[in-house]
Design a protein that fits this description.
about 75% helix, about 220 residues
Length: about 220
């Protein structure tokens, strides 16, 4: 229908016309026409049928963002759980290293308590993420397709905090206190989870069909 064609063209106003955009626009137009025909075949007047179809499309700005590739629809809780699972692996290795360091440099066998408590900081969020995923395994969300700027920010933030810790460590290395050892590696590798998880989120979002072939 001409009204549908004009409506869809209006949605894409201001968006550069490419082969992909043309295909997506024509597909959306066919979808609307099919839904419109179904409603009208059931006896619903054209104007009301058109309103129902538009309403069923949901947030049109969000829809266009998905079509143009600026945003993507993913199984959010599944992605978050996968990230948390990776965090458990990293956190386990990290806390083992921390426990060994405290064993030889500070508290001896009591380092086990420090390591276990620190390890819970990785386990508890992961368990919460897993429970949320199991409760709503198919929960979807529309997220930015490219979060590389957040990845860069996390890397700069991690580098800045790490540098500050190493400077303080060097200044205290001959202080004669219990800080007269190399300890700055702990916050360096601890905060590394920030850029690692942000990069993982970016990678999984960009490679969504590889990880989640059934994603809509």
């Amino acid at each position: 229908m001409e009204s549908v064609r004009y409506f869809v063209k209006g949605l894409f106003r201001g968006i550069p016309e490419t082969e992909k955009i043309t295909e997506q626009r024509e597909e959306l137009e066919r979808h609307i026409n099919d839904r419109l025909a179904d409603y009208m075949d059931s006896g619903i007047p054209e104007k009301e049928a058109f309103s129902r179809v538009v309403e069923s499309l949901g947030n049109l700005d969000e829809l266009i963002d998905v079509i143009t590739g600026e945003w993507v629809k993913i199984y959010l809780k599944k992605r978050d759980w996968f990230m948390m699972a990776g965090g458990i692996v990293y956190g386990t290795l990290y806390m083992v290293a921390v426990g060994i360091w405290f064993y030889f440099h500070a508290v001896g066998i009591y380092a086990v308590y420090i390591a276990v408590l620190g390890w819970l900081g990785f386990i508890v969020p992961a368990l919460i993420g897993y429970i949320k995923y199991r409760n709503q395994p198919l929960a979807t969300a529309v997220v930015p397709a490219d979060i590389s700027s957040s990845v860069r920010l996390s890397v700069f933030g991690w580098a800045g905090i790490s540098l500050a810790c190493w400077i303080v460590n060097i200044l205290l290395i001959n202080s004669g206190t219990f800080l007269s050892v190399v300890w700055a590696w702990m916050p360096t590798f601890g905060i590394l989870t920030w850029p690692l998880m942000t990069a993982a989120a970016d990678w999984m979002t960009k490679n969504l069909k590889v990880l989640f072939p059934d994603a809509e």
